[in-house]
Structures are given as structure tokens and as C-alpha cells.
Specification:
It is built from ten helices and nine strands. By secondary structure, the protein is an alpha/beta fold. The chain has one domain: Alpha-Beta Barrel (TIM Barrel). The radius of gyration is 19 Å and the shape is globular. The structure holds iron/sulfur cluster (SF4). The site of iron/sulfur cluster (SF4) has 11 residues, from loops.
Length: 311
């Protein structure tokens, strides 16, 4: 797909407006899932950076029924953004980690809301198979599905360091299975892992660019209270990227990604009361403006260094 004229990068909101004709917002839910990297199946204690909320949005209440969480979320986006369309976002923990018959029941609770145009399901790449994807397809007929897989990095030694409990092969398998469905395929990656040079981070991006991933979320590694990473950081502080380095690396990444890849996120949403470091990630707008300013200064945009052919 060639998009003319091309802005600095293909923002998720642009994609949503082009596709659905108006503003669309995500309504995050915590559906009570667990994770094989926490319950002992793959590991205990989770990935070293994961806290007890498993990436849930700060305003989401795990103890509330899913439908109530969705109703609350719809009111929030309606009031705050005046948006009438929304995506139910299964965000916390591993949102495919259950038996298919249980998944069917859980997902079914997200149906029947006026204005719901799609569902985003974040999960580990080793938590999907054909049967699970078939359930998702069956339940969410008529709405768009975004599958989001945590890759984090393409470097196996970093995956071992962060105790992810899976390798790159699991991600490749998940992408390949999902490509047999009408779903969009997205990846989450982390910049600033100790031991990774800028070139290594960009190798992860090149890998995703070659896979023609549909959507991407880029996060900066951050240390949250109550995580194993926090203990490591306390006993043996390691270098975290400064805002300027992160901005510059993100700009390199955007240049390498295909123009068709939708950029869903370029900064994380860390809760200020639980964040230990780096504190600059709380300045989200400054970071995003810095990325735009850097691209303008370079005279570049997403895809300028992309070597493939357009969709
Ligand atoms: S896979 Fe996700 S939910 Fe599970 S421990 Fe890692 S970050 Fe947390």
C-alpha cells in the first residue's frame, strides 16, 4: 500500500480513522487471565520486568465483571474523547492462556456493546494454536481482530536474561498461524535492554520489517516496584537509555519499518507511583514531540530506509 502524502509515521489513530471513518479508542479489560510464566508452567515470578498487575491499565479493576469493566471504559472514552466507537482490549497477562471452551465464554462477554468495532488480544506467542485462533474467529465474527504478541527482542540471550520462557521461534510460529486468519498481527518490543547495543535493537526492528508485521508497539525498558528487575536494579544498577538516546533509536526504527506498519505505541504508560526508573518515561508528550522533531530535523519519515516493496 502506498500512502500519499506520507506523514512522519503511520499513527494508529490515522489507521483507525481511515478504516472506521471516525475516532476509535481502546477500552482495556483485565479478564482475570494468568500467565504460564507465572504459574510454574514455564516459570515462576514472570518476566523480570512484569509486576503483579501484568501490564493492566491503572484504572482497570480485575475484580469487576468483564462487562462492567467494558461499560465503565465506554463511559470513560465517551466522556473524555467523545468517541462512539471502541476496541475491547484484552490487555492484562496472557489473554489466550485458557482452555478453548473457557476462552469462548470469556471472549463472549465482550460482545453486544454498541460501537464495538474490534478486539485486541495481547498474549505470549507460545500461548496460541489453531484451535484458539479458531475460537477467536468464531466469537468475533464481523469485527476486526488485532493479535498482539510479545516478542520484546530477537536476541535469544536477552530473552533468557529477562526470563521470558520462550524463544524467537515461538513468535515466528504464532505469526505464521495468525497469517492464516483475517486478523492483524502485531508485535511488542522493548528498547534499552542491558547488553543490547543500538544495532541489536535495530536488528529486532529489521526482523519485524522483513516479516511485514501489521502493527508494532515499542516500549522503553523501565523498572517497576515489586519486580525482580527492581531488585536487580537496586543491588546492581545498570544503565538505562536517556530520553535523547531512546528518541534517536526510535527514529532509526521508524525509518526501517515498512510504510504500511501501523505504529500503535512509541512510549509506555508506567504508573508514576510504581515507577523506579527511568523517570523520563512519564513525560510522554515530550518524548513523542521529541520523536517528531528528530524526524523533521533529519528530513526523514517512516519507511525511508525500508528496503522491501510496498503492499
Ligand atoms: S508474559 Fe506477560 S504477563 Fe507473563 S510474566 Fe511476562 S510480561 Fe508478565
Amino acid at each position: 500500500m502506498t500512502r500519499e502524502p506520507f506523514s512522519l509515521y503511520y499513527h494508529f489513530s490515522t489507521y483507525l480513522k481511515e478504516t472506521f471513518g471516525e475516532k476509535v479508542y481502546r477500552v482495556p479489560v483485565d479478564a482475570g487471565f494468568s500467565c504460564p510464566n507465572r504459574d510454574g508452567t514455564k516459570g515462576i515470578g514472570g518476566c523480570i520486568y512484569c509486576d503483579s498487575r501484568g501490564s493492566a491499565a491503572p484504572f482497570v479493576h480485575r475484580n469487576l465483571p468483564i462487562r462492567e469493566q467494558i461499560e465503565d471504559g465506554i463511559q470513560r472514552v465517551l466522556k473524555r474523547y467523545k468517541a462512539k466507537k471502541f476496541i475491547v482490549y484484552f490487555q492484562a497477562f496472557s489473554n489466550t492462556y485458557e482452555k478453548p471452551e473457557i476462552l469462548r465464554k470469556i471472549y463472549g462477554q465482550a460482545l453486544g456493546f454498541e460501537g464495538m468495532i474490534g478486539v485486541a488480544i495481547a498474549t505470549r506467542p507460545d500461548c496460541v494454536n489453531r484451535e484458539i485462533l479458531d475460537v477467536i474467529r468464531e466469537v468475533f465474527q464481523g469485527v476486526q481482530v488485532w493479535m498482539e504478541y510479545g516478542l520484546q527482542t530477537v536476541h535469544e540471550e536477552s530473552l533468557v536474561w529477562m526470563q521470558r520462557g520462550h524463544g524467537v521461534e515461538a513468535f515466528e510460529n504464532a505469526v505464521s498461524l495468525t497469517r492464516d486468519t483475517p486478523f492483524r498481527v502485531g508485535a511488542h518490543i522493548i528498547f534499552g535492554l542491558p547488553g543490547e547495543t543500538r544495532e541489536m535493537m535495530l536488528e529486532t526492528v529489521r526482523y519485524l520489517a522483513a516479516l511485514r508485521i501489521d502493527d508494532i508497539k515499542i516500549h522503553m525498558l523501565h523498572v517497576l516496584k515489586g519486580t525482580r528487575l527492581a531488585k536487580m536494579y537496586e543491588h546492581n544498577p545498570f544503565d538505562l537509555l536517556e530520553m535523547e538516546e531512546y528518541i534517536s533509536t526510535v527514529c532509526d526504527a521508524l525509518e526501517l519499518l515498512p510504510p504500511s506498519t501501523v505504529i500503535q505505541r512509541l512510549t509506555g504508560d508506567a504508573p508514576s507511583d510504581r515507577l523506579i526508573a527511568p523517570k523520563w518515561i512519564l513525560r510522554k508528550q515530550k518524548t513523542l514531540k521529541g520523536i517528531e522533531a528528530e524526524l523533521i530535523k533529519r528530513g526523514t519519515h517512516q519507511g525511508i530506509a525500508w528496503k522491501g516493496t510496498s503492499k
